[in-house]
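ARCHIVE CARD
SHELF: 3
SLOT: left
DATA:
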Amino acid sequence: PSFSFSFLFLFIIKSTMDVSSLRGRLEGYGQEHLLQCWDELNAEEQKALYDDISSIDFDRLTSDFRRATTPGNSQAKGDETLLPIPDEACGSVSRMKADEKKRYWENGLRVIADGKAAALLLAGGQGTRLGVPYPKGMYNVGLPSQKTLYQLQAERILKLQNLAFQLTGKKCIIPWYIMTSEHTKGKTEGFFKSHNYFGLEAENVVLFEQRMQPSFFFDGKVVLSKKHQIARAPDGNGGLYYAMGSCKVVEDMRRRGVTCMHAYCVDNILVKVVDPIFIGFCQEQKADCGAKVVRKMEPTEAVGVICIRDGLTEVVEYSEITLDTAKKRRDNGQLLFNAGNICNHYFTTDFVDQVVKQHDHELLHHVARKKIPCIDSNGVQITPTANNGIKLEKFVFDVFRFSKQFAALEVLREDEFSPLKNGPGKDTDCPASCRLSLLSMHHRWVMAAGGNFSDSSGTILPLIPLRRCSTSGAAEFECELSPLVSYSGEGIDKIVSKKVFNGHIHIDTDGVHTIAEENGSEPHSKRARSD
């Protein structure tokens, strides 16, 4: 019976596959190598490969590859037509008057209280560059609380819901949509479940998966990662729009009454999730699309800038602008093109719906050269030590050009942008720099609220940023505040005003704790009274 069942299974599989036609189709696209190991595969492997190949639109795939890899003249065109964002479309947190900031803050909280705002997290990337086998959002940079990026963001959402209730008396929900990938969805879902969604309701944390695209060798041939498997990778954070359509995310937003959203990348430890000031500013500007930016400091800084090209809003990469153009300055001495993009965006639901239905196919792919594990022409598994192929990616901000009313809000780097890109031991964008950025910001909050720090002799220390003492990111004193205590420094005066703290402290909903370091180990919390 066992033999008969296996034979029947094999017969059914083979009878549903027209391998000859598939081979002829692949030859027409120069992709016949995808069947090079066909005769070595068992029935299940043959079926898996057959289905994988059959699912690919090779006309579209070939067109995408050619469009992405054909050299263009964007740099010359850009220099001739580039203009900075109009002043009337720009705001600046550092230049806002107190009453203006209060107005944006409260109006943003009212939008949240009415259930009209959502968080949209881009979390499809793995922690490969960090040297870990799990998603970036699960990473712990070594804070005294040992909180991960996911937990920090979840607690900021919880605090915002509470702040909106305090202002309006309305209980509200900020739905959190998290775009994952084939590589990160399972681990992300398991992580949230094991931590009880960090206090959020499970039905308000919506995970969805972005598309996986075939990878290519430099000559345009699709890569086989195994004899029976095509190499695929997430289609970049710009794959958001296809995923939102195919996973019916926009429909879910409509059902909940969401009219706007804050989209951001998972790796920014300072991100102000659904920032009320940003929401209020964009709403007052009647923007359908907006972005937070940081001021570009040097012409050669490797950051894309938001500007106008041929009448459309775009992010132009630093490599696309000649040095002469990058050096241009305003009358006040600032760079003319200084709106540095930090992947921190505002969209209306109507705008995203329009992109999904009308414009997603217009978004160009960008080339990312990568080391892609593969098999060679003899079917031998290869782990490359140098870039051997490309992945095609879309960028989330490439939709700016479809905006009818764009707004940009300049924010301070030290308050809002510290990305985690590199693993331990690197000098920048690493766990140590992220840890220091967050603790330094919390130190400034305490000082601004009337608190002080002293050294071991009791001498009050000046209001200066925390100083790093080692490559671990440790400082002579450290201060961490739970997002559940304060979203952006508000309301902590009653805890810290006129008090002096010595050494390391951690402030959470239970009060002020001192943090002890024993024998060079990671800091840990111990309850203590502030002085």
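SLOT: right
DATA:
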Amino acid sequence: KNQPHMTERGCASGFWEILASSADNYLEKGLAHLPNTEEEAARLHPSKVPFRGLPAISHGIKIDARVRPPTSTKTRTSATKIDSKEVRRTSSPSKETYSRNLEDYKGKIKQMSMQQSSCRYLQKQLLSKDPNVTTFVFNEVIEDFAELMIHPFGNYLCQILIEKGSPKQRSLIVSRCHQHLASMSCNVYGSRPIQKLIENLGARSEDIQIVRNALQDHLVIMTQDLNGNHVVQKCIRCFNPKNNQFIYDCFVQNCIEVATHRFGCCVMQAAVDHGTKAQQDLIIDAVEENCGELTRDPFGNYVVQHVLDLARKDVPLRLVEKLEGQFHSLSLLKFSSNVVDKCLKLGGEICISRIVRELLDVPPIGDEVPVTTPGLQDKLVELAMDPYGNYIMQACINESREQVPDVYNMLLSVLEPVLYRIKGSPCFQCLAPFTGFSPEKKKLDSPPASPGILRAKGVQLFSSQDGCITWECLTSQMLVVDVREIEEFEKEHYPSAINIPMGEFIRECTQPVPDEKFKLVKAAPMVALYCGDGTRAKLVRDFAKNFGLSNLVCVEGGLTPMDKNSLNHL
């Protein structure tokens, strides 16, 4: 304490010398109470040993546990009172005391507001609700108000002065600081005083006009700033529609730039929430014009969803018409799939019908039914297997079942022949309960006929094992392959089947250039493998999957469940 120039090591060394001296003193006082140890204690006095810190323990002096050292404060020296807590206490600076009369600090208020302790003192004085105190402090700092607003401590004083000051004083602040409002709004300390100023301007049109002129050329930069975006949101909330119209005009002109920014999208959502109907229409028109780009953006999609949440029936339909022709690709993307999902859930019958019909390659209006082609099946399988697209498929099934039964039946008629291709996938567990193939959910009556589907009514579509189908589920679009040997194939086989024996099939999987038969296997949208009892077909399927052939399914049981009459009938 007395030698502040000492280093940390020097302070520690001095402390240990004091502690050692205290131990010497303690030992000298305590030895008088120890019987028959004077000579030994004199011989082993701690001042004669190399380390003076713990003499009694280091040199084995036996101290009677029944005799305690003296506890009287009179026999102790001042050094014995020193401990770590007292060292910390004495090393800390003493509290400064301030005069109750602020007049004593005339000409020093600015410097005081830039120091933590004195700034707190000034804040307490301002909170006393004495107008004379506010006036005195205000007159002292008004010339440097812009500098104090961006100061780590001075900004707190400025906030209280803005809140406690009179309207004339706030007008004076605006006139002195208007040239720096935009830059101060983007400052980590200046943002809060500016928000407080906007909040307390009231209906003074002259001051609001000055603030508008100072900010309007910098709005895009402010909306993209971590601190400045809060100032823009404060203007939207506190100014009346006439005074904050300049913000909406800026957002319409710079919709993409603002809505696709991390902070800008939040400001635009606030503008939608607090705007009048006319102002909301401006934002909706801008979003509709740019919805293709916004729906794919990580931040812009939130603006589109927020517009859809306005519960205005015309908005979803307008967006669906604008996005027409893109729903399949949008459903496969992380961000845009959220927009498609919301259009299905909030758009009503017309939006559901348009989206589902587009996914089925059917005109949006009319009684035309979808034609089940391999290309359409591949698109639906891709959608159902996609981590984002499967949610769109679920929404299509759920919403159409409840609101547009005709579209629901049309969707099921196309989904039915491709369900086995997603058997065993996570998406199948989501789709199966809704498609009518489980006991809990029944398909609606009289679905539209689907061309090219050979299916016996009431026959179970799937077996208990993954990737297997029954004979009744074969369609005209499937390639049927017999993996038995040539002799077995010539005795009996499925009429439209081609023969690729098991060994040949496995060998062709590993060849860079396959033969003509195997090219058909690779090109087919779906291949049904069968053998005598299903064993070889499953081995071939499992082996081929390792080489990228995912279009293979097995006919359960092979030819065993079929008698000759059934085979001849086929």
